[in-house]
Design brief:
Elements: H1 3-25, H2 28-34, H3 43-63, H4 68-97, E1 112-117, E2 125-131, E3 134-142, E4 153-160, E5 163-168
Helix pairs in contact: 1-3, 3-4
InterPro entries: NA-bd_OB-fold, NfeD2_TM
GO molecular function, one term: peptidase activity
Transmembrane segments: 6-26, 38-59, 71-90
């Protein structure tokens, strides 16, 4: 086995190993690599191209009489082509389709809700907030230090230490 065949085999095996690791450990590795923020070099596109490059190069070097330079050039074209194909087939459509019912506490500022349990002037009550996934209940305190009775519509002004600080919501000007 010459040097280029070894390079092709290493690329092919690396791609296969990455695929097996991704299957076993979920999206952990992909999430870590996604932090590069390079749209065309997403893990799935990079690994698809690397694996195709290795596989095409190895097969062509073993079973054709093409020169090493031609085999290398064709392997690069095949790998790059498959990477671009993977980008447009999987990555780009999925980036538009990703929706989540999850949220962070920081996103709750400005949300309208209703007091479920009366909020005392100096204590905690409970606020019901409508979300995509249904209604959520959160601990709440009055930002102005005034009691807010059950059933009052409120707006979340700020979130500190997992407590929503709310004020009554009024449509009066």
């Amino acid at each position: 086995m010459d040097v280029l065949e070894t390079v092709y085999m290493v690329c092919l095996v690396s791609g296969i190993i990455y695929t097996v690791i991704s299957l076993l450990f979920g999206d952990t590795v992909s999430d870590w690599l996604d932090q590069l923020h390079l749209p065309l070099f997403q893990p799935i596109t990079f690994v698809s191209g690397l694996t195709a490059f290795g596989g095409a190069g190895y097969i062509m070097s073993r079973f054709t009489s093409l020169s090493d330079l031609v085999v290398f050039a064709l392997a690069v074209v095949i790998g790059a082509g498959l990477a671009v194909f993977a980008y447009f087939l999987w990555v780009k459509p999925m980036s538009k389709a990703e929706n989540s019912t999850g949220y962070s506490m920081a996103q709750l500022g400005g949300k309208l809700g209703e007091v479920g349990t009366t909020i005392p002037a100096e204590g905690l009550g409970e606020v019901l907030l409508p979300m995509i996934s249904g209604t959520t209940y959160h601990m709440a305190a009055s930002l102005e230090g005034k009691s807010i009775p059950q059933g009052t519509r409120v707006v979340v002004v700020e979130v500190r230490d997992h407590v929503l600080y709310v004020i009554p919501f009024s449509t009066d000007s």
